[in-house]
Predict the 3D structure of the following.
Amino acid sequence: MLTRDQCLELDRNDPLRHLRDRYHVPDGMIYLDGNSLGLMPKAARDRVRKAVEQEWAEDLITSWNKHGWFRLPHTIGDKIARLVGAGEGNLVVTDTISVNMFKVLGAALAMRPDRKVILSDTGDFPSDLYVAQGFARFMSNGTQLKTVAPEAVVDAITSDVAVVMLTDVDYRTSRRHDMAAITRKAHDSGALIIWDLAHSAGALPVDLLGIGADFAVGCTYKYLNGSPGSPGFVFVHPTLQKQAMPPLVGWFGHAEPFAFDTQFTPSAGISRMQCGTQAVLSLQALDAALDQWSDVDMQAISSKAHALGTIFIDAVEASSSLTLAGPRTMSTRGSHVSFHCQNGYAVMQAMIAQRIIGDFRAPDIIRFGFAPSYNTHVEAFDAASALCRILRDKSWDRPDYLAKKTVT
Amino acid sequence: MLTRDQCLELDRNDPLRHLRDRYHVPDGMIYLDGNSLGLMPKAARDRVRKAVEQEWAEDLITSWNKHGWFRLPHTIGDKIARLVGAGEGNLVVTDTISVNMFKVLGAALAMRPDRKVILSDTGDFPSDLYVAQGFARFMSNGTQLKTVAPEAVVDAITSDVAVVMLTDVDYRTSRRHDMAAITRKAHDSGALIIWDLAHSAGALPVDLLGIGADFAVGCTYKYLNGSPGSPGFVFVHPTLQKQAMPPLVGWFGHAEPFAFDTQFTPSAGISRMQCGTQAVLSLQALDAALDQWSDVDMQAISSKAHALGTIFIDAVEASSSLTLAGPRTMSTRGSHVSFHCQNGYAVMQAMIAQRIIGDFRAPDIIRFGFAPSYNTHVEAFDAASALCRILRDKSWDRPDYLAKKTVT
């Protein structure tokens, strides 16, 4: 276990140290909830102001061309593509994860008409499961969602599986899948695969083209700091783009949106995954946020994620009796760390009262997200110390901490 | 035809005159494109700044409760509901028109399993038609989209029609449907009806509950000034809310989103039409924009829309040979006015060069949107004069005006 001084030394030598200044860190706060909502990049604040006061207020409708509003889903998409190994032109920013999941799930199922099983696991983000359940109920043609334990996924990929739909990093336990191995097994069995990268993009190395992923969706308001609720992204492998036809289409996915043809003709490429007009203010915030990543090495991000998590785990385990939820080693873990914790909600309230921000996930998970682009090693150490102190002093045991229910 | 002085007199006596100051009007501009992107309300600018600099930057994840982010789709929805006669709790703001159309189309079709026809008209906004086409192709169970001329809709509602899907105001010609009569005929024939209010909400009186509409979708960035690409809305009649099950569901539509149950249980009310996390910055802009409507009488809005359009039509027809596209009387017309115009694209460029902003829709439509909350009577008069002068002087006949293609 490292000492506090050793953590400070790591911060001094951190090759990503210069990044922290690009984000607004509230005074005296240790923010470990970037896996839920990322800090505000200062450039995003300035960009939104320009988008409102110049582009919307003054230039109005001309901004669609003049300020590149039309291309934003693609310009941002290509910036995200670099972070997840998606290649240029294969990823577009639009709608939400759930809506995008619906599109690619529908496209994938239509490509495997003789198979009826959507395979997922119990650690999948619930909304993805809801999308699949809604889909299966609606089709009423025998399509069904089958969920198994995360560790049982590989063996469950049998010849009746049309689509494997998985979240890379478990939102509670931080358990990470072996994306390459599962993708290979899916393909060997004739199935297609959809990866949800909500807790991966911007925190972990992902190589979508390298592993041959068919589809992926992801989130931009966590580690990518795109602003609260900023639109999601969707990736389709280049070899599938002409074939993959989403059930949900709209004019932004038309080959010629401004021909206003009454007949839908899909765009040839990734653009067919677009549908309606997107929220421009959020897109502009996101585009400015992504500009902070242009000089960032994803291996350095991943190494630092590892270091931060390890410092925290070691320090918590050294001075408390909490049990780690999920795996210990970085190769199988995401960038957040979760512990099982009795009265976890109240404990987290006590942390928050000390301006150390994590979150709680029912039934008993306290969760701490480490964002390598702005969190420091000493923050991980200090947060662990505070947590252990709170547990030792029982300072969580107050009616106001125990009473409320969190919703985030 | 009114004189310019009479228009000035109307402006002096305009009961909605005080509203204009709530919006930012660019210097020297006559903005007649509020049917595409509404002007910026000054309160929206201030609200977005607060949302970025305080809520996101400082309060971060706590803002979901502290600043009511979770409730925004409903709080805004209820404000819009007043403008379209939807009643409280029946309308929610989320996603885009196309995505919402998909949800309600799926819900409606599932409620009429023995019928296979979606009926629409050739004046429907193309993206709605694309949604229906995508849906029909995907179902491959005989579901088909049938389109007829707008004036033939009533007679085409036969006993095989499951759903009538119509846009109230034609985006090109401004032709308005008789919503009450068509809804009645649909119900008499056992069909359900979906109204697209993109060009109606905020400009015309709409009474969804009064006419007994089953479903409606709409847009917030036109006459409601919610910011570029701000989210759409969806209405479900209270008697159908427990029955209407969208094919596309997600965690925000769950009865208990933060229970993180692996099984989807739909919320009992309109909330099931929500799906994923929405763009908060755009929602905040929209909420501030809607606050400008709390004291506005929709009958006064509608009367002024009528007056502005009539001034413009009369003045253009008096001094040019242009042909009006669509109806002349307000009872069958929306709040924009369109003329057929040879070289319409170049003519519009010449208008824009004089800071009079309308838009062009292929093949030959020049379109002018009158937003009763900020446009004045004299603006309508001056825009018409400028248009006639441009036509008379052929000042549109320049290579740079003729060459380009508009995309908005």
